[in-house]
Write a structure and sequence with these properties.
Length: about 110
C-alpha cells in the first residue's frame, strides 16, 4: 500500500513538471530528441543498458526535481540530543531530543553554498 501511494503521486508530479519544462524549452526538447534517436535508434523496446546512456535526459529529470521537488519537505522527530554541523563553517546547530523538525527541500535546492 505504501508503494502504491508514495510512488504514484510523487512520480506523476515529477513527470508533469518535466513535460512542462520540456514543452516550454524547445531547444531542450531538440537535444532530448537527438539523444533518444542516438541511443535508442530503431529499438522498439527501451532496454535497461540503454537507460544509463541517456545522460541529458537524466540531467533534465534531476534539474526538474531540484526546481519542483514533488515532496517539498519532510517531518522528522529527534530521538536523541544531536547537532547539525555546517559544512561551510559556523557553530553546530543543536537539536534537543523530542524536537519536531520540518526539513524543507526548496531552500536547500536553491542554496548555492550546498
Ligand atoms: C520522483 C519520485 C519520488 C519522490 C520525489 C519521492 C520522495 C520521497 C520522500 C521525500 C520520501 C521520505 C523520505 C524520508 O522521510 O526520509 C519518500 C519515502 C518513500 N517513498 Fe518515495 N519518492 C518518489 C518515488 C517513489 C516510488 C516510485 C516509490 C515506490 C515504488 C516510492 C516509495 C516510497 C516509500 C515506500 C517511502 C517510505 C520509506 C520509509 O518510510 O522508509 N517513492 N519518498
Amino acid at each position: 500500500m505504501s508503494f502504491l501511494f508514495a510512488g504514484q503521486d510523487s512520480t506523476a508530479v515529477a513527470l508533469s513538471s518535466l513535460f512542462c519544462f520540456i514543452a516550454a524549452n524547445p531547444s531542450v526538447q531538440a537535444k532530448l530528441v537527438l539523444e533518444l534517436e542516438e541511443v535508442l535508434g530503431d529499438s522498439e523496446n527501451v532496454e535497461w543498458r540503454q537507460l544509463s546512456k541517456l545522460k541529458y535526459l537524466d540531467w533534465c529529470i534531476k534539474e526538474t526535481l531540484r526546481l519542483v521537488p514533488p515532496v517539498p519537505g519532510i517531518f522528522k522527530r529527534a530521538e536523541l540530543d544531536c547537532a547539525i554541523v555546517s559544512q561551510t563553517g559556523g557553530k553546530p546547530y543543536k537539536i534537543d531530543k523530542k524536537t519536531n523538525l520540518f526539513l524543507s527541500f526548496l531552500p536547500l535546492h536553491m542554496d548555492t553554498q550546498t
